[in-house]
Amino acid sequence: MQTVAIFGVGLIGGSFALALKKAGFEGRIIGVSSPATLEAAREIGAIDEALPAAQAAADADLIYLAQPICRILDTLPQINAWVRPDALVTDAGSTKEAIVARAGETLTRCAFLGGHPLAGKELRGVMHADADLFRSRPYVLTPQTDANMGLPLAITFLEWLERIGARPIVTKPAQHDRVVAYTSHLPQLTSTALAACLNGQFDGAKPAFWGPALLDTTRLALSAYDIWKDILYTNRAHIETALDAYIDQLQQLRAMLGGSDLKGVFDEGAAVAARLRDFVQPPGRLDAK
Questions:
Q1: What are phi and psi of 117, to 5 degrees?
Q2: Rounded to whole angstroms, what are the CA distances from 196 to 94, 138, 205?
Q3: For a Cys-Cys bond, which of 5, 8, 44, 91 suits 67, CB 3.0-4.6 Å?
Q4: CA distances from 261 to 245, 256, 267, 271 (A)
Q5: For strand 167-170 and strand 284-285, is the pairing parallel, antiparallel, or unpaired?
Q6: Where does residue 188 rank: exposed (0-12), middle (13-18), buried (19+ CB within 10 A)?
Q7: Residue 285's pLDDT band (boundaries 50, 70, 90)?
Q8: Cross-strand partners of 115
Q9: pLDDT score of 279
Q10: Residue 134: helix, strand or coil by DSSP?
Q11: Within the chain, which residue ranges are assigned CATH 1.10.3660.10?
Q12: What values do phi and psi take at 32, rounded to 5?
């Protein structure tokens, strides 16, 4: 892998570029993005040069799509005419079923490997890129077929993920989307809903006082809708199922208020929270059922 083209050199794309360089990548990193973003990416040393999309795709061994999900869906059929047959296209989209399906339909001249780094910040843009963003974080891979994981460039890509400190996990696109509906998308929506609820209760003003718990639980509400709209659109069915389960749990809590049965829910919740903080997912394969 000598040349990497990053489409969308924002927080994720810029961090991937910086992480590669920190891990010892000595090849060429090309950026494809807006002029302002490319200038900022050059200033922080994330990319070596900027090229038009067609030329970047034609030159690259690895094409890394770090755009918003709907942009990735639009880019896949466009780059099919430009890529080399021995290239590998991967993406960093937060949902996988729609992207992997689109790649299967339109990307016919080279291999595709779906990906999702479970890393990020509330802040966006390449100016917030971090070479250590992926360190110790899960990086989910969703190949179209198991055979794709054995392709030479896929093996090389996996090796680089490990070098930058990520923890690769392989699963099916549908399983990925079902899991993140509970572990990522539901937390975002509950944080946003809580902050919106406070806004309604206090007429847009600050509450008179609050503790750290409120800051912890509304942190995700700082995330921009522009980032989330494509996620909510492409994973709607799984998110609706997760919301139904959460609303049902809240209704059960409401019915238990003042009763001794609530202790069991607190104990169950505390046990799950403790496991999340103690458990480190080793590299491997998620249950793909």
A1: -75, 125
A2: 24, 30, 12
A3: 8
A4: 19, 6, 10, 16
A5: parallel
A6: middle
A7: very low
A8: 141
A9: 66
A10: coil
A11: 176-285
A12: -125, 110
Helix, strand, or coil here: 67?
Answer: coil
pTM reported for the whole predicted model: 0.90
Distance CA 253, CA 260 (A): 11
CA dihedral sign of residues 100, 110, 78, 90: positive
Residue-wise pLDDT tens digits, 36-49:
999 999 999 999 99
CA angle 133, 126, 153 (to 5 degrees): 60
Q: Strand, coil or helix: what is 65? A: strand
Tokens representing 102 are 């689109």
pLDDT in tens, 181-219: 999 999 999 999 999 999 999 888 889 999 999 999 999
Summarize pLDDT for 93-150 with one digit per residue, the tens. 999 999 999 999 999 999 999 999 999 776 788 999 999 999 999 999 999 888 889 9
| Nearest-angstrom CA–CA distance, 159 and 287 | 22
Q: Which CATH superfamily is domain 176-285 in?
A: 6-phosphogluconate dehydrogenase C-terminal like domain (1.10.3660.10)
Q: With contact defined as beta carbons under 8 Å apart, do 148 and 111 qualify?
A: yes
CA distance 80 to 187: 36
> What's the burial of 26, exposed, middle or buried (CB within 10 Å: 0-12/13-18/19+)?
exposed
Question: At how many degrees (to 10) do helices 97-106 and 69-79 cross?
Answer: 10
CATH 3.20.20.10 corresponds to the domain 3-171: no
The residue behind tokens 């919740």 is 269
- Burial state string for 109-143 with b = 16 or more CB within 10 A and e = fewer than 16: ebbbbbbbbbbbeeeeebebbebebbeebbbbbbb
What pLDDT is recorded for position 281? Answer: 52
